[in-house]
Amino acid sequence: MTDTLARNEHMTFKANAGVGRHGWLRLTPAYGVRVVRERLEQLPPGSVVTDPFSGTGTTPLGAAELGHFGQSVDVNPFLIWLGRTKTRHYDPSISLEVLDAASDVVRHSRSYGVRDRLWQPRIFRIERWWSPGALHALRTLRASIDNYEGAVRDLLDIAFCRTLIDVSSAAFNHQSMSFSEAGPRKRFDIGEAEAARETFLIEANDLAASAAHDLPGSALILHGDSRNGVADLEPADLVLTSPPYCNRMSYIRELRPYMYWMRFLDEASDAGELDWKAIGGTWGTATSKLSTWAADYPTPVDEELLDVCEAIARDGEKNGRVLAAYVHKYHYDMWGHFEAITGHLKTGGSVSYIVGNSTFYGHEVPVQKWYADMLRALGYENVHVETIRKRNSNKALFEYDVSATKP
Questions:
Q1: The domain 3-90+215-250+268-405 is classified under which CATH number: 3.40.640.10, 3.40.50.1470, 3.40.1190.20, 3.40.50.150?
Q2: What is the C-alpha separation between 55 and 361, in angstroms, rounded?
Q3: Is 262 strand, coil or helix?
Q4: How is residue 125 annotated by DSSP?
Q5: Which pLDDT band holds residue 68 (cuts at 50, 70, 90)?
Q6: pTM
């Protein structure tokens, strides 16, 4: 295998760790800032760059770092908050303000007794995620941070999000975040609570240092749907994005611990409703809704798409029909997106979609080919599919850059 097709972890979120604001919060499916910078460095100064699937804000932040104007939309309110926090222009005094506030938060959190009755999220089997000591610390830190507001509050919340993952049983040893199996119930350990508070101070210190470095450019992140929510954005010179892959990985599932503790989710049903609004979402009620979903209009790739969907339905046993509907709806939604984004792109502007193919029951879903075919159907020129890396041990899965120019 050539170096080009190797797994290339420098193209994934792992490369973002320690890269200033890009490493502020981990999202397993996020793509690497190096991919973004390689494409943005080819633009003239002051270009307008759009990411219609904002995610953790890698593209708009990368654009602002290089002196461009980055803009993006997302349907997930947590990701909008995260992106705005990462791309904000902070006052030079922010470092000292955050450090002082973090120290005060920890001191205040110690004032609560071990039998506190503070709020905690309604996460099913929450004891599987955090030990009693760590959970006590998180409750008291959450209550103490709630006394702040503005930029300082946002950075404290980022430090809190990092801490709640640091002290959890979360595992990142494969593509999707998971949690270890619950062992024997542990007794309360004040040492674990203190360790969590010390972790919070360390995380706050790291954030304070990187927030102090200002951005040469700027960014705007709005709530919106990539299928119809780009009309309010400035016309773009480049659309650079990595949409959700057609692999049933739910961003909502990956973000649950953050979204519950940050109060963006309350009930499990909230996650399913939000995932149904997102392209490729399959969490909770989003899966059951697929069984009754039907397309309202055709796409240019229906001939090949429906053949693959029928094969998945045939060979997928009890889950086949639902998975076939998932693949169909994913491409139906992406066709709606491509139609919307074409009107947003400047004449002569270009698009770059970082996306992976998938397989279900031995049948390849060639997402990269169908993206290219849909762009050609809309009149794009110089449509090109470049294989940029091998994704995992499955020899059939790769990551691609699908690019094109609007004439």
A1: 3.40.50.150
A2: 29
A3: coil
A4: T
A5: very high
A6: 0.92
